[in-house]
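Internal tracking record. Fields below are filled automatically when a chain is submitted to the structure queue. Please do not edit lines marked as system-generated. If the sequence contains nonstandard residues, flag them in the REMARKS field before resubmitting.
Queue: standard
Priority: normal
Entity type: single polypeptide chain
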Amino acid sequence: MIRFRPIAIAVFLLLILFFVSTDLAAASSPQHDSTGVKTEVAADHVLPSTIMVLPFVLLLLMIATGPLFYHHFWEKHYPKVSIVLALITASYYLIVLHDMHSLRHTLAEYLSFIALLSSLFVASGGILIKVDKKSTPFINVLFLLFGAVISN
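SYSTEM-GENERATED OUTPUT FOLLOWS
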């Protein structure tokens, strides 16, 4: 029996989502005159239901409480839980709102954000600060404050 890892399934589903043609979705939507100037874009954009914040809130609650209260379950199943909650949101955008553009745009922003975090992680991995004095929480706060001031 072939076992697929949750990460591999998630990557596969994201690739399908990214490369699916929007021509099929565009064929069922009404055609608009492309020469006209739109004065109000908000009228064309449908906002998601406020209940769709629940998968995100549930994920945050599980990230915060999982390692403390149900450690064994969370350690074993957190990728599956994350993927299911992400698929709920993606399915809502695809099936209910018929909004492929938002998913593609969000995926592109997410990938660029991950690339930025990865490069910052690699760049900061070689930084070592040595001080002759004993390290205290106050000294650590001073270092963080100094870094925040010079970074801005």
